[in-house]
Each structure stands twice: as structure tokens, then as C-alpha cells.
Amino acid sequence: MNRIRGWPITLTEGPVGLRPLRLRDAAALRETRTRNAEWLRPWEPTYPEMPLHTSGLSPYVAMLQAIRREARHGVSMPWAITYDGVFAGQLTISAIVWGSARSGQVGYWIDRACAGRGATPTAVALAVDHAFFTVGLHRIEASIRPENQASRRVVEKLGFREEGLRKRQLHIDGAWRDHISYALTTEDVPGGLLARWRRRRGQVAGSDSAAGGSS
User: 32-61 pLDDT, tens per residue?
Assistant: First the structure.
């Protein structure tokens, strides 16, 4: 067993929080994913252990047990996203490779009720900074369907670099789908990704205020 340095940990920025997923999150996970089934279906990998709709808790408990086991073995960091303390989604840095690579893959989903509040890019920035500057990873990748404009905006706002198209990379919504690969390395964010995101949000807020004052 190879535990990750700095895991488990809870991270916060304003109303947005990341905390390790717990077995007792199964009910909230089921409710949120069922309520958001149509919102998530076009972008979710097709695998039975994490269904978008089921009346029972057992598949969610099994999924949580599996990803918590991966965390104990040093290959995953699975967080619940919270907003004002309420369960709002999931963010996982998975497929962690050590040795000379020191890389991982970030994936996330958010309750539609929380979309548009900056929660997802804030959560990604929190997770990436922790992965880089505490855990010791060097590279974080994100693979996103070309059609998923909302998810692509998240990584583009944060300055992830687009690195090309991966043909038929994952089975999504009933078929093998192409994905665009995005990535960041520690050299890209020497001052931290969260600090970059705070500056961007401040600039946008300033622009909005100026636009409002001139109208």
C-alpha cells in the first residue's frame, strides 16, 4: 500500500469545498445523480458500477468502496464537491502514476443547480494546487468531449493547454467518443492555479462593473 502524501484532506475557497468522499455519501450521490441524469448522461463514461439512475444504494456504496480503495493505494484522490456545505458533485484526480511520470487525470461533475457560480473551476483549482504543491505530481490532464462546451470552458478559464484529439478514447452514452486532451504542468502555474483563477475572476468582475457603470 502506497498512501498519498497530504491525503485525505479537506480544501475550501469561499462557499466551495472539497472533502474526501465517504461511504455515507451514497444517498446524496444517488439523489444528485438521479436528479441530474439527463444533464450528465451525454458526458458520463458508460460503466455499471456508477449508474446515473438506480433505486438502490448498493451500486453507489460499491463504487465508493472501490474509489476509496484506490485512494488508499495511492492512485486516486476522490473528493465530494460541496457548495455552502451541501453535497454538489464530485471531483477525482485518478490514474495517478508515480516514478518518472508523476501525473494524474482530473474528472468532475457538478449539480446543475450549482452551475454558473464558478464552483467547478474553483474546485479544480483547489485540487490541482494540492496535487502539485503538496502531493508532488508534475502533470494533470483532463479529457473532454469536443461537444461538452461547459466542461471545456472550465479548463480553458483555468489556462489548461489543449494538446490534441484522442480518437474514440472512452465509451460514453452508448458509443466510443473522441476526446480533446488538456494538460497543465507545475511549470505552467508557478504561483498556483487558484491564484490565477482569483485574478481572472477579479478581472471579469471589474469588467462587469465597468460595463454596468457605462450603460
Answer: 999 998 888 887 777 545 555 556 789 899
Is the Cβ–Cβ distance between 106 and 92 less than 8 Å?
yes
| DSSP one-letter string for 106-168 | EEEEE-GGGTTSSHHHHHHHHHHHHIIIII---EEEEEE-TT-HHHHHHHHHTTPEEEEEEEE
Instruction: Round to whole Å and give the CA distance between 77 and 63.
Output: 14
The grid coordinates of residue 162 equal: 489543449
The three three-digit cell numbers of residue 68, written as one number: 476509496
Radius of gyration of the chain (CA): 17
3-state DSSP call for residue 198? helix
Q: H or E stretch including 35?
A: helix 26-35
Q: For residue 112, count CB atoms less than 10 angstroms from its CB and return exposed for 0-12, middle for 13-18, buried for 19 or more.
A: middle
Separation between Cα atoms, residue 211 and residue 118, nearest integer Å: 20
The per-residue pLDDT for 3 is 79
- Please provide residue 22's backbone torsions phi and psi, each rounded to the nearest 5 degrees: -120, 155
